[in-house]
UniProtKB/TrEMBL annotation:
GO MF assignments: glutathione transferase activity
Similarity comment: Belongs to the GST superfamily.
Domain annotation GST C-terminal: ranges: 88-215
Protein name as annotated: Uncharacterized protein
Organism: Photinus pyralis (Common eastern firefly)
GST N-terminal domain: residues covered: 1-82
Domain of life assignment: Eukaryota
Amino acid sequence: MVLTLYHFPPSAPSRGALLAAHAVGVNVDVQVLNLFKKEQLKSDFVKINPQHTVPTLVDGEFVVWESSAIAAYLVNQYGKDDTLYPKDLMKKALVDQRLQFNCTMLYPRVRAICFPILYQDEIEMHDEQKAPVDEALGFLDVYLDGNDFVCGDKLTIADCLLVASVATIAAIGWDLTSYANVYSWVSRCALEIPNYVEVNQKGADEFGKAVKTKMESG
């Protein structure tokens, strides 16, 4: 049975889930919904996911959304082993912490800058919005100190989701060279995760272009 992933390439959470699918090695039928055109509000999709959010994964009769939940499900259900999401409780807790860091700190701070530009006619990024992003990148840089990946020496689903957020940050104009550990980690992820450029970089670039176009048009 082929899994279906409802996906919007510019969306960092959506890209993170698709990166996880590629890391697991599971085939998914990607159905693109253009959030800029509000295609997620179509009635047939709302029936699948009443929150009308992407990513959304459909596996037979089972439906799950939220990128962290999708990534964990894919490993637990289809992973050849548990490297990407360990069963060992301490290792798993560390992955969970990094996932929570992404969804409660890093990504929301990026979204707080970009949402007003894309949807509320804001035309610039304000310093008071930039500082929290820099703080979060600083934390991530510490996590990576002495480590190849965010939870140690092996890639996990936390890397997939975090690198999607960080690629978005770079695409909207951040200079990641100020965060040496983060900068080198992105390169490692690009080598380690299959189809990284196609799945993550192109979508991040598309998002960055949309944000910059809005700012320039103002």
